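To the wet lab folks,

You asked to see what we're planning to order before we commit. Fair enough. Below is the target structure as tokens, and below that is the sequence we designed to fit it. If anything looks off to you, flag it before the synthesis order goes out.
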């Protein structure tokens, strides 16, 4: 007889392992099926490894400028092989921690490729080709996504690289062409540009970073230019133009292998779900990159929690309103809510307040003066969006999200006085600027 569970979660990335943990916390008997390593794209091939590389290249870049701080170094160099080794150690530790967490929550982890036979039945094939079948009352699909490629430019790990391939590149590159000016392309442009590689980004659309506030995009382009990054927009990449390496980051495709038997309703290449994360098949839920309009780990986390709770009797809904995001350029980007263009299209009158990082005491003290904070509010004063380019923007966006999500007014943000000296003061000052009463700039 096959093992039987309350819930089987297929895929151990941020959507899947979080769904499994929440279901286990609620007392369910849970199985988590993963063919590769627990942690999925985010932990093994995405957010964490990229951030680990950026930590090294930023430190290198900062060290090159150490003399400005009165710090003298006899020589500064970067060893990409050691950078990759450090990244791999971090991943290994976090994967172990996540597995430990799952196991301590009494989740049974099955290492192998899962194939759904029907909503309540999953076949698992392990690395030795051995097959077993497990059963469940409710199924949560969290199989993630993979890098998309361009026809005729198959990933070969040599000339045409995916974001997975380049994460393990140990050799310094003189030249790198990047196809796609989305978040992934910009991250690698940042990494390689800051260590002296000549980078060219080819973006088919008129602008890079689709969905990011236009003013912030212009500031990012300026920052990239300073780091040897050449940005070509309106440039559809159809064939390799150089004999160097080409990194292709033109989006990601949901992984639907293994779930075909369910004949799920689709939304283009994604699995269709309603706001309760239910698929078109009873007792089958889906979360994360497999379904998402926004392929972000924190969206997957939240959808995983909601799917698990709903599978066990709750009735929660997921909303794409007010999803924050952070991009690890130098300086960083943090963003939540409507961009200026979206706010102008939706509402007739809006208020905008901006505050430059250079006017903050802390920014001058630590030498991080590049950037700006922009607060957007409706004519009724309710906050609609906050966009930041500058040091610690990916952390500052947390406070901004609290304000925008809870529909605070620009006055309430202006009256929330912040600790000094911190970058958070910029949030308060930008709100003050929207009310034409900023204190450290002329209004
Ligand atoms: P993306 O969809 O964000 O950007 C891909 C870009 O490639 C688009 O601007 C598109 O116009 C362009 N493009 C497509 N075909 C092209 C061609 N032949 N020539 C030139 N340009 C072409 O995809 P990306 O950057 O691969 O990221 C995938 C997903 O991962 C996104 O949903 C992204 O939001 C998410 N992600 C988010 C992160 C974050 O928020 N920190 C970090 C990493 C990924």
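Sequence we intend to order:
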């Amino acid at each position: 007889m096959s093992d039987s569970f309350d819930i089987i979660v297929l895929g151990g990335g941020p959507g899947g392992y979080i769904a499994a943990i929440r279901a286990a916390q609620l007392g369910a008997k849970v199985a988590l099926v993963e063919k590769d390593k627990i942690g999925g794209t985010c932990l093994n091939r995405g957010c964490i490894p990229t951030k680990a590389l950026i930590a090294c290249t930023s430190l290198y870049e900062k060290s090159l400028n150490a003399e400005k701080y009165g710090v003298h170094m006899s020589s500064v160099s970067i060893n990409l092989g050691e950078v990759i080794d450090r990244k791999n150690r971090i991943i290994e530790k976090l994967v172990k921690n996540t597995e430990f967490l799952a196991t301590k929550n009494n989740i049974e982890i099955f290492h192998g490729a899962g194939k759904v036979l029907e909503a309540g039945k999953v076949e698992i094939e392990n690395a030795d080709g051995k097959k077993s079948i497990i059963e469940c009352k409710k199924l949560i699909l969290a199989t993630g996504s993979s890098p998309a490629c361009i026809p005729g430019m198959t990933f070969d790990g040599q000339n045409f690289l995916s974001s997975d391939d380049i994460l393990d590149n140990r050799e310094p590159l003189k030249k790198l062409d990047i196809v796609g000016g989305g978040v992934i392309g910009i991250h690698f442009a940042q990494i390689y540009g800051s260590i002296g590689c000549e980078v060219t980004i080819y973006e088919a659309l008129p602008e890079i970073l689709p969905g990011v506030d236009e003013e912030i995009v212009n500031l990012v382009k300026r920052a990239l230019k300073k780091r040897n990054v050449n940005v070509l927009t309106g440039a559809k990449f159809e064939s390799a133009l150089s004999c160097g390496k080409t990194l292709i980051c033109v989006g990601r495709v949901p992984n639907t292998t293994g779930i075909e038997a369910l004949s799920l309703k689709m939304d283009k290449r994604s699995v269709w779900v309603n706001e309760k994360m239910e698929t078109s098949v009873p007792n089958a839920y889906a979360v994360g990159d497999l379904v998402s309009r926004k392929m972000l780990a924190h969206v997957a986390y939240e959808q995983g929690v909601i799917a698990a709770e709903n599978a066990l009797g709750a009735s929660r809904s997921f909303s794409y309103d007010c999803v924050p995001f952070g991009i690890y350029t130098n300086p960083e980007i943090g963003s939540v809510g409507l961009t200026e263009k979206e706010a102008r299209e939706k509402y007739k009158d809006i208020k905008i307040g901006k505050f430059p990082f250079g006017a903050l005491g802390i920014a001058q003290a630590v030498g991080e003066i590049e950037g700006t904070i922009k607060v957007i509010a409706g004519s009724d004063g309710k906050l609609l969006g906050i966009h930041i380019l500058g040091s610690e923007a990916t952390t500052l966006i947390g406070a901004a999200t609290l304000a925008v999500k809870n529909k605070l007014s620009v006055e309430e943000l202006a009256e929330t006085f912040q600790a000094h000296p911190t970058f958070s003061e910029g949030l308060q000052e930008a709100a003050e600027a929207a009310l034409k009463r900023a204190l450290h700039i002329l209004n």
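Structural context that might help your review: The mean pLDDT is 96. Residues 46, 150, 179-185, 202-205, 210, 236-237, 249-252, 295-296, 325-327 surround NAI (CB under 6 Å).

Thanks,
Computational group
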